Amino acid sequence: MVTIYDVAARAGVSATTVSRVLNGAKVSPESERLVRAAAAELAFTPNRTARRLRGQHSAVIGLIIPDIENPFFTALARGVENRARAAGYSVVLCNTDEDPEREATYIDIALAEHMAGVILAPADDASDVSRLVAQRRPVVAVDRSLAHAEVDAVTVDNRAGGHSAAESLFAAGFTRVACITGPSSVETAQLRMAGWRQAAARHTGDGHLEDLLRYADYRVDGGRQAMAELLALPEPPDAAVVANNLMAAGALDALHDAGLAPPGFGLAVFGDLPFASFGRRGIRVVDVPARELGEAAATLLLERIGGDAGPAKTVVLRTREQR
């Protein structure tokens, strides 16, 4: 059976370096390249049973997300899996449906199964990771941070994204730009809304912004209902910023029912539209780098598993607008 000592000899590095690479700890890019090449040549497979006995955890990472049907989280999961698998870890995917109780159950399972660590897209701002922290189980928040917990986080600049989305609609000549955002208890929803509010207040004043704001549930039906309500206003909007892709699909349905569509009605959306039947024509898309979010979250988690005991880190990725 091939051992890490065989891999070390082939790569010309120490067995400690091989171990650090396999556990996701930081080494030089050249050392990592040599170790991975040697492991591939020798068809080396990490001994997961031995790893668990030594470290009291399995070679499994828990990924807890709020909506498995959203292509954004599918892409995020792919990023996590790619990075984890390269380090010799498997990923168990758990779907909470934005339910804090279900989330808590999955956290209990992660602890009971001695998972090496957890990557969590929190169901809401009150998500409780204290049990993971108390048992020194590495945890990284992704997409949504946890301000009340000293844990690593990987997010995007949601406020800047909301601001640039709204500004692009005003720059295109629209004058009543509404906002359909997610639940008020979710950080991303509040930040994207705050960016819209900043831009809208600059162009129109603060007076009637509440009339043009709707909170929904980050689902297709929520976007459809929110847009229908906005279109029924005595002075309906002529454009809208929609804070995620599924709500945008519902908003487009409501626009179609009202005989409206982009580009005549301005629309800026966070994330790619989920269904092929929805073209991008006339729609401003704020690209949220989902796979990169997953890769960055997995990298932080693997560093913690590998022994990084430094203070909590926050990584913020940029959004970019696609027309």
Automatic annotation (TrEMBL):
Residues 2-55 form the HTH lacI-type domain. Pfam families: LacI (PF00356), Peripla_BP_1 (PF00532). The keyword DNA-binding applies. Keywords: DNA-binding, Repressor, Transcription, Transcription regulation. Gene3D superfamilies: 3.40.50.2300, lambda repressor-like DNA-binding domains (1.10.260.40). Coiled coil: none annotated. This is LacI family DNA-binding transcriptional regulator.
